[in-house]
Amino acid sequence: MTQEKSKDSLPENFNSTANLTTNAGFPSSLSISSKDVNDDKPYNPFEHREVEHPNSTFGSILHLLKACLGTGILAMPAAFKNSGLVAGLIGTILAGFICTHTVHILVRASQELCVIAKKPSMSFAETCGAAFTYGPKSIRSWGGAIKKLVDYSLFLTYFSVLCVYVVFIGSSFKEVLDVYVPSLQLSIQTYCALTLVPLVLICQIRNLKYLVPFSAIANVLIVIVFAITLYYVFVDLPPITEREMVSKVSQWPLFLSTVIFAMEGIGVVMPVENEMAKPQKFLGCPGVWNTAMIIVITLYGIVGFFGYVQYGDDVKGSVTLNLPQDEIMAQSAKLIMAVVIYFSYALQFYVPMEMVNRMLQNRSSNKFENVIQISIRTIIVTISVAIAAAFPNLELVISFAGAIFFSTLGLLIPAVVDTVFLWDRNLGKFNYVLIKNTIIGIISIIALVSGSYVSVIGMIEDLSGHHDVHFNVTG
């Protein structure tokens, strides 16, 4: 009976952050089977959640801040360069509001679907599939396919993050070594390639608990990097009038896709909500999510605004790359951040690898398990390094990833899920829900098409030699 129950539960787990459960920063979102309720009392999923170590309300806010306040905040000055100071502030607030709202509608739909399906919790992919399964009759058969689509989308999204991380590590080491070992003068592609062996080695660690100490070290180091970076950002600020208030409209897509990449934490939202001791406090006013996003939007606006004021059009894909080259403290911040990203790569690697492991479970035997695991892990890392070396422009890589993947997962899919779920229930007066979600969908498609187009054109120009291939990396 136990074996049969275990098999039944496997297909239900389509959450790409499922295996991050042992890391406090990536709480579990595995669904726990629930028994049917035979009485007349409405099913309350919160009462049926069996969480071994539930997160407090304050702890949940910290988890969300950890997810959203990553390396993306260092790209905000480059985003402001593509928008201007005034347009950047307004755009950051609007983008933050939309990202906050899309998570609201996704979590609300998930909680209501848990009641309908009589399940204590659902992952991101499960929520998307269930919205169709319990939606209009004509599309209920799409549930399984939608769940798989979202699962594959999560794989590609986090794989794109791995590519960004490789570029960041390579560019950070190049910035430092070009100064202290000028005889080297290696290309950014070479530095990306040199990350291959260290990344392959750390990604062979299969149990996440062995990476927890590295994660803890990374959290301490990133605070040091932020402190050093902010010190240089606020020292001797030039007049604001020297910077553009509103940049060319043709540059706005790069701003929008970069902000979406930086701000979106859609992959960890459901895990955090599922592991809360009081999940009913996730939404609402002030609520866990609202509180976290107010802090995120404020910090992103401050770093983006003053980072652009300080460095202007010379600002790079990560503001740490703009720190003085003749000061040891500034150069050490670049190397420390490279180490942080190295550890973070290993953690992010578990997301796509978790999906691969589920596919491997369908094999008839476990022969050559170690060889297969080592080979697949090495191949995934190698592909990410190859892509990073081919497109080493950090700003364009971030913009492309934000446009293609995060605009889809963070904006378009929640809007579609909310619309499908409420289609036969209540779309509001004058169908305002449909109108509002259509607008969000249009914004996501604009970000997807325009952001990816501008990014791809920039990458092609880099490859063709029309621009310096080290644009925004070596200056």
UniProtKB/TrEMBL annotation:
Q: Polar residues compositional bias: what residue ranges?
A: 12-35
The cellular component terms of Gene Ontology attached to this UniProt record, alphabetical and capped at eight, are:
vacuolar membrane
Residue span of region Disordered: 1-51
The Amino acid transporter transmembrane domain extends over: 55-456
Which residue windows does the record flag with biased composition (Basic and acidic residues)? 1-10, 36-51
Q: Where in the cell is it found?
A: Membrane
According to its record, how does it sit in the membrane? Multi-pass membrane protein
Provide the transmembrane region boundaries: 58-80, 86-107, 149-173, 179-203, 210-234, 254-272, 292-311, 331-351, 371-391, 397-417, 438-460
Q: Which UniProt keywords apply?
A: Membrane, Transmembrane, Transmembrane helix
What Gene Ontology terms describe what this protein does at the molecular function level? L-amino acid transmembrane transporter activity
Q: Does the keyword Transmembrane apply?
A: yes
Write down the PANTHER family for this protein, in alphabetical order: AMINO ACID TRANSPORTER, GH04538P
Protein name according to UniProt? Proton-coupled amino acid transporter 4-like
Q: Which organism is it from?
A: Papilio xuthus (Asian swallowtail butterfly)
